[in-house]
Amino acid sequence: MRFDPTELAFDTNSLDAGRPFDAAIVGAGPSGSAMAILLARAGARVALIDAGRFPRDKLCGEYLSPEGVEAVERLVPGDRLARSGGRPIRSVRLTTPRGRTLEAEVAGPDGRVGLGLSRSALDALLLDEARSLGVSVFEGTRISGPILQDGRVVGVSGRGESGRPVAARASVVVAADGRHSAQIRRSGTTRARSLPGLRPRLFGLKRHLTVSDPASDEPSGTVGLHLLPGGYVGACRVEGGRTNLCGLLPERLSRQYRGDLDALADATFSGNRTLSALWQAAEPTGPWKTVAGVRVETSSPRLPGIFSSGDARGTVDPLGGQGLTMAMLGAEVIAPFVLRALARNDEGPAALRAAQRAWHARFDRRVTLCRAFHHALVQPSLIDVASLLGRWGNTLLSLGFAATRDPVRISC
Ligand SMILES: Cc1cc2nc3c(=O)[nH]c(=O)nc-3n(C[C@H](O)[C@H](O)[C@H](O)COP(=O)(O)OP(=O)(O)OC[C@H]3O[C@@H](n4cnc5c(N)ncnc54)[C@H](O)[C@@H]3O)c2cc1C
C-alpha cells in the first residue's frame, strides 16, 4: 500500500497544551503499553493514546506463552500478574474431526508455564503500570495519522469521543495500533507474507463462555486447538471460571451464514466432536467479537520520525501463540532505537532502518516457523497420521512448539 504525505493534515488543537511529548505512542495494547513503560523508565515524556477505554475486551486466544509471562514480569514488577487469576497452561491438545488427539508440552525450558488470561485483564495490567510511571494516557481518542512539518513527523492528530479534533506534538511517533494500523496506512507500506492462494481468506471470532459440564470443558492446564476443515477453534480457560473460544475460519463461512455466528457455530463446530461437546455445554458470558482479513504481513513506516511495534510492525500466525509475546519482546527490541533517536535528535531513515533490521533479525525465524506450523496443523489428515505415531507424534509436536521460541541462551 503506498502513502501520500500530502494527505496529512496539521491540526492545532492539542491533547496537551504544555510542552511537546518526547514520544506519542498510538495504541495501548501490549506493544504500546510495553513501549510506554520502557521509554518512561528511561526518563522520556510519553503520551499513550488509544481509541478504546480500558479495561476492554479484545479478540484473541488469550494464551500467553511462557516467554510472554516472563516479558510481563519484566514490565510489571511485583506479584500483580500472579494475582490476576490467570490459569496456568502446560500443554496444547490438538483434536481432529476424526476424533484423534495429539498433545504437547508447551512449558519453557526452565519449566515455566504459560497463562490463560483475558485481554481485558492483561492489557489493563500493562496500561496501569505505564500510568504509574507518569505516562500521559489518553483513552477514547482515535488517531487518524501523523502530523507532518517540512517532511518530518512532528506529532499525531485525530478525534476524541465527542468528535472533537485533537493533536499531540511529539519528537517521535510509535505506531502500535495493531493489525490494519491506520498509522502505517497513512505513512508506510504493508506486504503480505502468506503466499496468495495457499490458504483461504480467514476471519477470527471469539467468545467467552462458562461450561456447565466439567467433562466437556477444556481440561485444566491445557489449551485446545480443535481442527475443522480450513481452520480451527482454540479453547483456553481464563480467570473468573470462564473459557475463551477463539478461532480462525474461512471467510466464506461468515458470508454463508450472513454473519449469524451462533448459526455458524452450531453448524460447523459439530464437525469436531470435542469442540461440539464443549459448545453444547457452554453458556455465553459475552458477545461474539470478530476480525476480518487475518493474514501474516510485515509493515514499514516510511516517514522520518515514525517507528512501529507489535502487530503494526508485523503479524504472526496466531496458532503458535506468539503474537502477545512478540508484541512485548518487539517493544524491547525497538525501544533502544527510539531512545537513541531522542538522545541524538536524529530520527532519520537510517535510525528507522536499523530498528527494522533488529526486529527482523529477532523474529523472522519465528514468523516463518509459525506460518509453516499453521499450514501443517490445519491439515487434520496430517494430524490423524501423526497421532498414529503415539508418543513420537506428541514429541514432534512439542519440538515444533519449542522451535517457535527464542533459542535457549547458555551463559558460562
Ligand atoms: C484469531 C486470533 C487469535 C489470537 N490468539 C492469540 C493468542 O492466543 N496468544 C497470543 O499471544 N497472540 C494471539 N493473537 C495475536 C495477538 O492478539 C496480537 O499479536 C496482539 O494483540 C498484538 O498486540 P499489539 O499491542 O501490537 O496490538 P493490539 O493488541 O491490536 O492493540 C492495538 C491497540 O491500538 C488501538 N488502536 C487501533 N487503532 C487506533 C487508532 N487509530 N487510534 C488509537 N488507537 C488505536 C486499539 O484500540 C488497540 O487497543 C491472536 C490473533 C488472532 C487474530
Notes on the structure:
By secondary structure, the chain is α+β, with helices and mostly antiparallel strands. It has a domain at 5-71 and 119-193 and 296-373: FAD/NAD(P)-binding domain (3-Layer(bba) Sandwich), CATH 3.50.50.60. The chain has helices at residues 30-41, 66-75, 119-132, 182-187, 251-256, 261-268, 273-280, 323-344, 349-377, 380-388, 391-403; strands at 21-26, 46-49, 63-64, 87-89, 91-95, 101-105, 114-116, 136-138, 141-149, 152-160, 165-175, 188-192, 202-211, 222-228, 231-238, 242-250, 282-284, 289-294, 297-301, 306-308. The strands form 4 sheets. Strands 5, 6, 13, 14, 15, 16, 17 and 18 form an 8-stranded mixed beta sheet that branches. Strands 1, 2, 8, 9, 10, 11 and 20 form a 7-stranded mixed beta sheet that branches. Strands 3-7-4 form a 3-stranded antiparallel beta sheet. Helix 1 packs parallel to helix 3 (119-132), helix 1 (30-41) packs parallel to helix 8 and helix 8 (323-344) packs antiparallel against helix 9 (349-377). The longest helix has 29 residues, at 349-377. Mean pLDDT is 88; it is low at 1-14 and 408-412. The protein binds flavin-adenine dinucleotide. Flavin-adenine dinucleotide (FAD) binds next to helix 1, strand 9, strand 16, strand 18 and helix 8.
Layout of SSEs?
Layout lengths: L20 E6 L3 H12 L4 E4 L13 E2 L1 H10 L11 E3 L1 E5 L5 E5 L8 E3 L2 H14 L3 E3 L2 E9 L2 E9 L4 E11 L6 H6 E5 L9 E10 L10 E7 L2 E8 L3 E9 H6 L4 H8 L4 H8 L1 E3 L4 E6 L2 E5 L4 E3 L14 H22 L4 H29 L2 H9 L2 H13 L9
Parallel strand pairs: 1-2, 1-11, 2-8, 5-14, 11-20
Antiparallel strand pairs: 3-7, 4-7, 5-6, 9-10, 10-11, 12-19, 13-16, 13-17, 13-18, 14-15, 15-16
Helix pairs in contact: 1-3, 1-8, 2-8, 8-9
The structure holds flavin-adenine dinucleotide.
The site of flavin-adenine dinucleotide has 38 residues, from helix 1, strand 9, strand 16, strand 18 and helix 8.
